[in-house]
Amino acid sequence: MAETAIRRSVLADRHGGSSAVRLTSAAPATRVALRAPQASLQALTAALGVTIPNAPKTSGRSGGRSVLWIGPDEWLVIDESGADLMAALSGVSEMHSATDVSHRNVGIIVSGPGAELALASGCPQDLSLATFPVGACSRTIFGKAEIILFRTEDDTFRVECWRSFATFVFGLLSEGAEDAGH
């Protein structure tokens, strides 16, 4: 029997925040960086069981699976149910590229009435509900790290970053959460 390495999340069991903001590590998830032309979206939507959005700052969600629009032909698929996304996409014959990035990314959940304020401490975007409603997502920066930001509820965001930046992003979020609590 072959030995298999199990990669523990760099933020395992880490949480923090303040009276206004909760910071927690996101549940383990499978993630796929998906690239495809417009003509392939219908087949990919059928394979994933969730509508692939085709407009900036939008997402599709079904159960524990989300598809985030990242660029004109680019999406991040996040699945928290343990499904094998690569197997689901392997049967699609239309042109596309799917790369499993599950071990590259780390998710951080930022929630509470001060979540917007905590994120504003390092993100230049307007995160008000009017401008960045539930379901909105974007590739942006937080401090000096590239992140993907996804608003999942009125007062809850999912921050996806590369695991090499996770400690930095979590630390900066912690400082923002402390400021939001005052």
Structure description:
- The chain is an alpha+beta fold and 182 residues long.
- The chain has four helices and eleven strands, in the order E-E-E-H-E-E-E-H-E-E-H-E-E-E-H.
- The protein has helices at 41-48, 85-90, 115-120, 166-180, and strands spanning 15-17, 22-25, 30-35, 59-62, 65-71, 74-79, 97-100, 105-111, 137-142, 145-153, 156-162.
- It has a six-stranded antiparallel beta sheet with strand order 1-2-8-11-10-9.
- The longest helix is centred in the last third of the chain and has 15 residues, at 166-180.
- It starts with 14 loop residues before the first strand and ends with a helix.
- The mean pLDDT is 93.
Which descriptors apply to this entry?
182 residues; alpha+beta; five-stranded antiparallel β-sheet
**Largest sheet: spatial strand order:** 1-2-8-11-10-9
Mean pLDDT rating? 93
Percent of residues in helices: 10-25%
Number of strands: 11
State the separation between the terminal residues, measured CA to CA: 55 Å
Biggest beta sheet attributes: 6 strands, antiparallel
Strand content: 25-35%
Shape: globular
Instruction: Using the CA coordinates, give the radius of gyration.
Output: 17 Å
Quick description:
This protein is of the alpha+beta class and 182 residues long. Helix content is 19%, strand content 35%.
